[in-house]
Amino acid sequence: MAVNRYDGTQAWYAISTYSGYEDKVADSINQRVGTNEFEGKIFGAIVPKEKRVEIKNGKRKVVDRKIFQGYVLVEMCLSDETWYIVRNTPGVTGFIGNGTQPTPVSEKEINEIRKRMGVEEPKFTVNYEIGEVISIIDGPFKGFEGAISEIDTTKGKLKVMVSMFGRETPVELDALQVKQLQ
Fold first, then answer.
1. pTM of the prediction?
2. Radius of gyration (Cα) for the chain, nearest Å?
3. How confident is the model over 84-138, as pLDDT tens digits?
């Protein structure tokens, strides 16, 4: 009989997966959770995602983006049996830990990840200042440069003064449509 090298306490563990297989791995583990065989041993798997704003074809879209590309979090009681089951799930490349010993993710880190996942409206990060000259990278003014005259951090919008036909014209842009000059 094999000696159990794990204490069997319930905790979250990070597992690495092939990139793009995160959802498949989590689904595969979650399908097994409902069976009697794993009751009280494996409690679930999640792919940490957060909502992000992207501009595609000039339109603003809210999309779910993986927080940690190539990783899945699994809540389980670590034992030789559960380690083997998770480790041999198709798409899993291993556990995150010290050497051969998987390391539990701290409760603080799990709470931070859950907080990021639970945010309904994405936050806008506007790292620009009034007067800063930027380059427009998307939309009808693509290729133009201009100076920022106003910043709306709640909506992620900028008012940029663009020089057209010899005079300054104010243009309202999404912060994702511009980039800082190098």
1. 0.63
2. 23
3. 889 999 999 999 988 778 999 998 998 888 888 876 555 566 778 899 999 988 8
Question: Is residue 177 within 8 Å of residue 139, measured between CB atoms?
Answer: yes
Q: How far apart are CA 134 and CA 128, in angstroms?
A: 9
Residue 98's CB is within 10 A of a number of other CB atoms, namely 7
Instruction: Find the farthest-apart pair of alpha carbons in the chain and give their distance in angstroms, rounded.
Output: 84
Residue 122 CA to residue 100 CA, distance in Å, equals: 38
Find the length of the chain: 182
CB atoms within 10 A of CB 68: 14
Token output for 26? 């989590």
DSSP per-residue letters across the chain: -PPP-S---EEEEEEEE-TT-HHHHHHHHHHHHTSGGGTTTEEEEE--EEEEEEEETTEEEEEEEESSTTEEEEEEE--HHHHHHHHTSTTEEEE-EETTEE-EEPHHHHHHHHHHHH-SSPPP-----TT-EEEE-SSTTTT-EEEEEEEETTTTEEEEEEEETTEEEEEEEEGGGEEE--
Question: Comparing C-alpha atoms, which of 81, 86, 76 is closest to residue 29?
Answer: 86
Of residues 43, 47, 29, the one with CA closest to residue 85:
29
Intra-chain end-to-end CA distance of the chain, in Å: 64
